[in-house]
Amino acid sequence: MDVLASLGDGFWIALTWQNLLLALIGCFLGTIMGALPGLGPSNGVAILIPLAFSLGLPATPAMILLVSVYFGAMYGGRISSILLNIPGDEPAMMTCLDGYPMAQQGRAGEALALSGVASFVGAFLAIWGLAFLAPQLVKVALLFGPAEYFALYAMAFATLGGIASTNQAKAAFAAMLGLGIAMVGVDGQTGVPRFTFGEVHLYDGIDFLVAIVGLFALSEVFIFLEHRGEDSGTNKASKIGIGRITPSLSMLKSCTPTMLRASGLGFIAGVLPGAGASLGSFIAYSLEKRLVDRKGTFGKGDPRGVAAPEAGNNAAAGGALVPMLALGVPGSGTTAVLLAMLLALNITPGPLLFQNNPDVVWGLIAALFIGNFMLLAMNIPMVGMFVRVLLIPPRILMPIVAMISFVGIYGISGSSFDLLVMVVFGVLGWGLRKLDVPLVPIILGVLLGNQMEANLRRAMTISDGDWGILVASPLAIALWAIAVIGFVVPIVVGGVMRRKMRGGVAD
Amino acid sequence: MRLSFGTSGLLAASALACIMLAGPSLAFEPENPECIAPANPGGGWDFTCRQVGKTLQDLGLVPGTVQVTNIAGGGGGVAFAEVVNKRNADNDLIVAASSATSTRLAQGAFPGNTMDQVRWVASVGADYGIIAVAADSEIETLPQLMDQIKADPRSVSISGGSAVGGWDHLKVLIAAQAAGIEDVRTIKYVAFDGGGEAVTQLLAGSVQAFTGDASEAKGFVDSGDIKVIAVLAPERLEGDFASFPTAVEQGLEVIGANWRGFYAPGGMSDEAYNYWVDAVGQVYSSEEWKEIMAQNGLAPLDLQGDEFQAFVAESVARIENLSREIGLIQ
């Protein structure tokens, strides 16, 4: 019961007016930043660091402010995914797949409210996980060597089939394109620049944020321009209306198992450094699709397709705090920023943090609980406000989207080169949409490609080029087994199932 | 994250007011002090900018706050090119730098740029390198590790947080050269994304040794998870690392310091340059900074102005030679 006593102390620390106010501000700003394309959790947190400094906040309140922004951004990312088909940040990408179709069917309000609840469930369970399991979970992270990471990424790609597209070949093509884009930049294992054409801006590779904003947001603008405000996607939604703004109880009930499974998966993905929230929401979605998508409704506005990635990515945000606090290893861009903040506050995260700075850790965990309830309370009533975005005529909305995209990307990197890259991706996204190629696998390729390659080559260096290392541990074998099953079973069983289902429906 | 320059007039006015109040003793004071961190928030450069910026502000050496701008890309190359090409005459600007900057300059990894294009301001400390093994490893000393590499180079993988050819890698190679290993290219170095991941892989048992900075390893040294077999400093470090022997003690002449410091635009006026040299020097000698150094495992490295310029030049030349010897550059 040590944990509960410590948590009690944590609440004692967190429950001051100042801390509550900071959490409220953080949650609100985070939600807004998450919703704006380009501004994700990591930039949101980074932007607020100077504020925390200039307010002269001590460690615990500063961390409370910043993690509130982090969690708020994880909540907020879904808003533009659902309303505009533009992910507010990379983990919210998967929410587009079912959230946007729901909005097009006039169920935007329901989708937003449901995803808010799913976010809450994911984050809530993850914080419990963080409170009770953090020291033990560190051991899970230590089970993953380069070979196991490679198997994990391979599993993600193997279960990709069928996501966002009925045409498997196009999904595979998109994933390969993403992997190819990921290869641009200096190769960490040899220090040699690849596909950079002597351009120093390309040495660090292509930032996936630039790719996401270009592919999703700008291409949407281009499509709007092409149709000159005729009946484009967003327009349709506004004609249909916004629907009810609370999810029905039966919908919540049907999504509960989905949320629980997705939270578990997302949390574990978050705990692994290098996997993170995007992988969490992706695996949560694709496995959920495999498990419960009997009628082929995923990708066409299935509420469970909204609940799964949202529960998954918010659980992953909680999970990502485990290696950051207990190992000092950031699992994502955002936790890297939080880690730097902790260091700047003279707190060294690492194996001894829980013993040396219990006030910071438990105050933080208590603040997460408080922040999470605030976010739920804030997000559900705000659904009614958010959905009104759909009522804005596209001719006003689209220029705003373009403006936010440009300002957002320039604000992050301060580089006009990135703006050009973004425009190129916008054109690319426009072309690919015409060809009906799904965009999500491209982003996955860009996000995971580098890590996948780096880990394969690390494994090869360690083993002196012996491929056996990839299947040398039980964990790796298990991951490969899931990958193979995930890849083969739908091909073999899928057809049979579909035929049966069709028969069933006909009866 | 850039400050809008629309407000610069206002700031200029207020800065002018400050100067007039402060009297004629100050020849130069930045209107709009800015520190560029050539990486995304969260890394060492970002930390250097933010901590030094905060201390400058706390000591009242700058008017208002120091704006930190993150210009990521090319391992610092994008920021370097930006400063050289676009902000060459900016008097209000300093840029965070470290051994990684001089390593890349030496290896020509900033295409078309050399260290002479900027003015080197001052160092604010150094993070000495360490070589460590897991707590339960049989290896106890650096010569032991080197002997094992000599006997069977394939049996030892070493993890580090920098890319191949980067500073963490070079430190091992310098040690190996000192130990008399002829073909240092046989050493297996596995590059990870940062020191934290590299230490984690040592704990996970994927690799046999770790090369990094003292500050990166601090948390794991305190918890007893890793065993530091050599500190690459001229003398034993103070504090937590005092119990660990230096490489020099063990008969291997290896010193590897990851220094942290600043450069300024090449066209900066002499008054402004002197102001920054003096201001960073004052930060370095302040009590506040001593505390920050102690808490972050930074060791003393006190070089300003011309001395620092010469230090960087020497370090660039040395890394260039070494990189050529081991075939990293032609």
Protein described:
The complex is a heterodimer of chains A (507) and B (330). By secondary structure, chain A is mainly α. Chain A has one domain (2-506). In chain A, 75% of the residues lie in helices and 1% in strands. Chain A is built from 20 helices and 2 strands. In chain A, helix 4 (59-84) packs antiparallel against helix 14 (333-344), helix 5 runs antiparallel to helix 13 (303-327) and helix 8 packs across helix 19. Chain B has 330 residues and is an alpha/beta fold. Chain B has 2 domains: 5-126 and 259-325, D-Maltodextrin-Binding Protein, domain 2; 128-243, Periplasmic binding protein-like II (D-Maltodextrin-Binding Protein, domain 2). Chain B is built from 11 helices and 9 strands. In chain B, strand 1, helix 2 and strand 2 form a beta-alpha-beta unit. In chain B, helix 4 packs across helix 11. Chain B starts with 7 loop residues before the first helix and ends in a 5-residue tail after the last helix. The chains are: A mainly alpha (507), B alpha/beta (330). Chains A and B meet through helix 3, helix 6, helix 14, helix 17 and helix 19 of A and helix 2, strand 2, helix 3, strand 6 and helix 7 of B.
